[in-house]
Fold these 3 entries.
Entry 1:
Amino acid sequence: MTSSIPDDISPPMPTSKKSTQYLAAVSSTLAAVTAANYIGWSSPALPLYNQKDTLALSNDEKSWVGSLLALGALLGAIPAGWVADKFGRKKSILMIGVPCLLFWFMIGFAPSTLWLFVARFLSGVANGATTVIVPMYVSEIAEPATRGTIGSLFELQMAIGLSLGWLTGLIGNLKWIAMTSATIPAALLLSFIFMPETPVWLIGQNRRKDAERAMERLRGRDFPFQQELAQLEFNKESQSKQRAGFSELKNHKRAVLISFGLTALQQLSGINAVVFYAEELFVAKESVLTPTVCAAIMGVAQVLATVVSTVLADKAGRRILLMISTVVMGVCLIVVAVHFHFQAGVQTNGIPWVPLIFFTIYISMYAIGCGPVPWIMVNEVSPTNVVGTISAAAAMINWSLTFVVTKVFINLQFTIGLPLTFGMFALLCMIGTIFVAVVVPETKGKTKEEIQLQLHKIKKAPMDVAPMEIYTITTEQTRL
């Protein structure tokens, strides 16, 4: 007895090898762990100054130590895209890793306040470049089936790095904190040097053979990736014709408003006031647990919430997550502000838990909505030809406001007090909720073309127009 396969049944499509994609993504995002570790460092480190064998820092100098990183990041983000295009994504990440390793020793063994300022500023420059180049690398090595999961690794690694920064406070020594933190960029350099360059960049450099070898490593020898390479070559030609600068942004006012508004909301929610100065807040308000333990609990909660957000973004939708996030964050800040106002006259065992509980809820809700969703939506609402320009401008706004918040927070704390300071951030969260409700559309499950039609209020695209021509339609519509 013989059997045959019917002619109308095709053999199963070979599946790609995903292990190299995940390995390369995890290795590259060690740069994100490093960047977030630099951010979280100020929380356990600042309370250790003004002690024996440490630098003496005034409150104003502490605010500069916290904020100079953001100022450096603002400058580092500006040329990062050009650097990645000039030298490649892989070399650029390795170029970031070397100074990130050295700056930890500058910080840990700084002989003067000036050296500490310089090290924080330069580490910020590396941070700014990291936030631009690493997501680019991760996105370009992933196939469409894994892009969502692999893309979420950057935000997850940032959460892990922030938590590790807070946990290093358990060491209790500035030099050992720095040396321990330096192991992360060292691991980045030792592992990432063996990872492939992105096929997207190699095709852009007309290095087809190298792109094929990179694809073979990322997808597997038996996976038919030639069609994907052909699409990359087509995209290269198309995007070179469509590339636009800042002057083109006037034709995409709603995309610009949404992108800039959400990135501003992200920082005006007060997140970096809590992140940079968590331990000092708990020291000032005498929490029932040690400040380092409180910060560690917040860090673990943020990591868990970030894992949850990777699932909810596609199930619940972006808009609803943003609204829930900002409302709950605002409520938490109001509760904390009221607690700080009345704390001196209240003597109950339960009250000291209020900052820990509500700061933990606050940072968890940030990790679920206000943290990751704005960056997702910047990419979704921006047309292909201006997404790089809008993303760069949004990053500049984000880091500028990070600098402002971290610089003025300590000054506000000692001028108007913590209750009014957190009350101000709570009000900004509520204003942000109104902004999301009125201005921001839901993008879940929609193609980029459908989102552009919605933003430009075009009810139906012409039947004979291909999706890649949507940009022309939407641009002409805004000029009418």
Entry 2:
Amino acid sequence: MAGAEAIVAAVVASLMLSCAAFTEENPTDRRVLVLLEDLAIESTHSLFFKSLSDRGYELDLKLSTDPKLALQRYGEYLYDALVIFSPSVEKLGGSLTSEAVLDFVDSGHDLILAANSTTSQFIRNLAAECGVEFEEDFDSVVIDHLSFDDARDAKDHSLLAAKNLIKSKVILGAKEIQAPILYRGIGHVVSPANSLAIKVLTASSSAYSANPNAVLASPPALTGTSIGLVSVVQARNNARILISGSLDMFSDNFINSPVRITGSTERFDKSGNQEFVDELSKWVFHERGHLKAVNLQHHKVGESGEPSMYRITDHLEFSLEIYEWTGKNWQPYQADDVQVEFYMMSPYVLKTLNHNGKGKYETSFQVPDVYGVFQFKVDYKRLGYTTLDLSKQIPVRPSRHNEYERFIKAAYPYYGGAFSMMAGFFVFGIAFLYHK
């Protein structure tokens, strides 16, 4: 009996977790697996973990070498997101191979990956699979002799005070981060051909990547603003990835530290790290920038029902509703750049949708004088937002012979020519037969 009760309790607990997990109606991650290189990271990075817990996340902190680690059981994923704070680990424990982590992302789940100067080849390969390539030299770190923390770094100038942030309210929030971001770690590059990866924090123009303990024999491979410090990736399935070359950036020490940029009299009592990692984690965990489209409808002008087909030159109305998730509820999304295509091999009609400020987008247009199988397509891709890719198929046919108008105004001259010819022939016949 005791065993049966334990099984029932486990099933109930599993159902409760499933109800609180990521769903289409509640797209914010809830269950997060955090892999630590050392249990001491739980205390040295406690402010970051506390911020996540205060926002309702269920954190499961485990050693990255735990032999019982697993992301799924019986085909069901146990977590909605994964955080890897284990830069030097050569292999994850349990069933967590690099393929398992990538499958986790390919299934629509989110990932935060932090590195540092001890980053292993395993972590480098994992980041490369996500579209971000770390510096090849294992001894290199990002150095900047003009933008470092003057108060704490008097030696190799590798404690950067970075301020080159992406200008995106959806990724970093509406409030601008004023204080510099303290950063110590390695740099990375993002291929310009990779449209899915975005550099959120970059080094200054005076930075370079090199071994601080060695004399430069040749110019460094990575220099200036081409060095990525923190990047994000939004996959085609809308899974989100955060890759940072600095694990210390998330630490309590860096969050609470005052900052003074070298050569500047400006001093900040606290770095911008807390605000930066909080806002960035909100985006990664879908608290912001997650869109959904519902109620896609089309019908003839003056009607309400959706037809099974249209005739050429019919006038129709198209509408849909778009909402954005705020972390707690859905709010109407407002934008002036949402478009619909009436598409067959190529767009025959491209219309910008008007919105009423309450989430509803609509427009009207005339069906082109071409028959075939068309699609209504909405392909909405904007920086920081999840992709909307909607389509609905509808055939367009020509009018039947009995659906045309009996008399067409444009043909009146031809009608007149025909009847005048008949009248002329009648008059000519009478004149020819009865007059000599």
Entry 3:
Amino acid sequence: MDTEERERKQLEKETKKGKKLWNNHKWNRHVEVDNNPCLEESKSSLQCIEENYSKRELCNSHFEAYKTCKKYWHAVMRERIRRGIKPPMPTHDEREKMKKELGINFVVS
């Protein structure tokens, strides 16, 4: 059995078991909602790039929304660290509650 076939069978096994296909923990960290507060904005930017590959300037509003989101949550995290609040990044539910209370929406429609 060659390496390629072995990898394919392993991938099929993992998919059937419902395991994540990405084994790289650093990658998983960025695609999980609890660890990435700007996941929606990131996906929105990438989708815009895919749709408008030749005219990237059409995606500037998506890029700005993503940058604003990153800056905002980074500032929140710095403030929580300064105050000694753990964990430094609020959980997904806490972030959603904060966004509702403040009326914040970074995603471009």
